[in-house]
From TrEMBL, chain A:
Isomerase is among the record's keywords: no
Key word Transferase present: no
Alphabetical keyword list: Thiamine pyrophosphate
InterPro entries, per the entry: PDH/Transketolase, THDP-binding, Transketo_C/PFOR_II, Transketolase-like_Pyr-bd, Transketolase_C
Pfam family, one: Transketolase_C
UniProt-recorded name of the protein: Transketolase
Swiss-Prot/TrEMBL cofactor(s): thiamine diphosphate
Signal peptide interval: none
Protein family: Belongs to the transketolase family.
Gene3D superfamilies reported for this sequence: 3.40.50.920, 3.40.50.970
SUPFAM superfamilies linked: Thiamin diphosphate-binding fold (THDP-binding) (SSF52518), TK C-terminal domain-like (SSF52922)
Domain Transketolase-like pyrimidine-binding span(s) in chain numbering: 11-176
UniProtKB/TrEMBL annotation, chain B:
Gene source species: Bauldia litoralis
Requisite cofactors: thiamine diphosphate
Source superkingdom: Bacteria
Pfam families given in the database record: Transketolase_N (PF00456)
Protein name: Transketolase
Record keyword ATP-binding present: no
Keywords: Thiamine pyrophosphate
Signal peptide range: none
Lineage: Bacteria, Pseudomonadati, Pseudomonadota, Alphaproteobacteria, Hyphomicrobiales
Record domain Transketolase N-terminal: where: 22-265
Family in the record: Belongs to the transketolase family.
Amino acid sequence: MSAPSTPPGAFDCRNAFAETLEALAADDPRIVTVVNDSVGSSKLGGFKKKFPERTINVGIAEQNLVGVGAGLANGGQIPFVSAASCFLTARAMEQIKADVSYSNVNVKLIGQSAGIAYGELGPTHHSIEDVAWLRLLPNLAIVVPSDPWETAEAVKAAAAHDGPIFVRVSRFPVPAIPRPDGASFKLGKAETLREGSDAAIIANGVMLHRALDAASQLAEDGINVRVVNMASIAPLDEEAIRSAAETGAVVTVEEGSVRGGLGGAVAEVMSTSRPAHLRVLGFPGFVPTGTVDFLFEHFGLTADGIAAAVRDVTAAGS
Amino acid sequence: MSRPDSSIDLIREKARLIRRAALTMDFNAQLGHPGGDMSVSDILAALYFGVLRYDPANPTAPDRDRFVMSKGHCTGAFYAALAEAGFIPSSELETYMGPLSRLNGHPNRNHVPGVETNTGPLGHGLPVAVGITVAGQISGADYRVFVVTGDGELQEGSNWEAAMFAGHRQARNLTVIVDRNRLQQGAGTEETNRLDPLDDKWRAFGWDVAEVDGHDHATLLQVLGEPTAGRDKPLCVIANTIKGRGVSFMEGEVSWHHGVLNQQHYDTAMAELAA
C-alpha cells in the first residue's frame, strides 16, 4: 500500500478519529465499531485492545457490514461502521439507502481513506464519488473534516447526533488549520476562516489548507478572497453560500468528483438563489496513475492552481 | 414481557384472518403479492400468536423480541398480522397502498409500529437481524430475533455474508425462517438458480437446520418456541410452503406472485377462506 509518509507538521486524520472514538467509548458503553477487516486501516488497533467485545469484525463483506450496523443501532448500540470509503459507499450503497438513511437509524458511517488517498492503486480504490452519491439520501448528515482537530470534532458530533451520519476521514497528511481560540464545530454550519470580498473559495477536507494558501498568495496581489470551510455538506449552510456568492465569484475545491459533490451543492444553491460566476475544482472523472501529490498537481488542486482559478473567475466577473 | 398463550386453535384462526385481510387489501389496491402473502400467513400467525414477546403499546421496548420481515413485498400479510396483533388499527388496512397511506407497498419503520427495519430490496433483513442479535450478545439482553426470508430471496449474496457471520458469532438467539414455496417472480427457484440442497448450505455456514411443514401450526409453534439456552448456533427453519396456500386457483401458480384479483377471484377466495 502506498501510504504517504507523514511529514513533520502534517497529520493523518485517521489517528484523530481513532483517538477520539476511544475516548468517547470509555465514557459510553454503547459505542461499538463495525469493520470489514479494517481494524488496521481504520487505526482501530487501540480501540480493539481496549474494547475487544465492542469491535465487530464482519470480514470482507460490506453489505453485511452496513446491515449489521443498522441492526446494532436497533439493539441500542451506537455503531461506528468504519471502512475504506470506496468499498463502504459503493459496495453497500443499497444498504446505506434502505437500512440506514430510509430506515433513519443511529448509524455512524466512517468513510476512511476517501478521495484519491490510495493514489497509484487506481480508480477502484479511489472514492471521489462518495459525497455525490450520499448527498442524495435524506436523513443522512455528511461531514468532510479538514484536519485532526476538525476530524475529532466531527467524531464527537457524530456520537452526539441522534441519527445517521457519514464522516469522510482523510488519510493524506494535512497540517493543522490555524483557528481562532474558541473555534467550534457545528453540524450544518460553515466556518469562515478568512474574510474577503473580491471572491470566495469554498473548500473542505484536505483541500482547505491549500485554499488558505491560495488566498494568502492572492492577497499579495491585492485580491482579497474569502475562504469558507464547508465541512458540513448535509445539513448545508445555504446562507453561507449565498453570502459567498455576493462577492461575485466563487471557486469550490474538493478531493472528489467535479460533479455532484461540494461543487454540485454550491451550484444548486447559487443557481437557484444567488447567481454568480462559479468554478468547480476537483477530478473530472477516473484519474490516471500517480502519487497523490502528483495527481493533486496534475488536476490543479494546489495553492497555485486554486489561485489561478480564482484569478480566472474573478476576471470573468469584472 | 411474556410469550403469548399459545393455542393451536387461536393460531389457525389468526392465520385465516390474516389471509382474508391480505387478500382484501390486495383486491382493494389492485396491487400486492397475494401468492407470497398466502404462503407466509401461517408462519406469521405462529410467530405473533405463539412465539414473539411484544407489547403493541410499547413497540420499541428494549427487551422485545424482534421480527424482521425480509420479504418486504408481502406487506399484505405483514400489515394484517400487525393489525391482528394490535400494532395498527384493522380499519387502516383499507388504506393499503392508497395515496399518502403509511401502509406503503414495503414496510417503513418510521411510520408503522412493529416494523424493525425498512425492507423491500431483497437480502436486507438477515444482515440487520444479525446486527440486532449481536447487539444482544454485547449488552447481555435475552431477546430473540426472528427473520422471514423468501426462498428466491436467498439468491441475493448479502444473505450469505450475514449467514456466515451469524454462524461465526454462534448467534443462538437468531432464527431465520425460509418461506420455501419454491416459486419466485418469474419461475420456480430450482429452474431459475437452484437453491437445493438448501439445508446443507445453511449447515455449512454454521447453522442448525429444521425442515418443517410451513402450514402446520403445531410444528411451527414447537420449533420456533423452543428455548435457545442450550444452543450454540443460529437456527434456520426451512418452512416448506405452497405459494397461494388456501386459495385453490392460486396454489402453486407462479402468476399469482403479484397477480391482480378481479371480483370473481376475490369472491371465490373469500368463500374458500370463510371458515
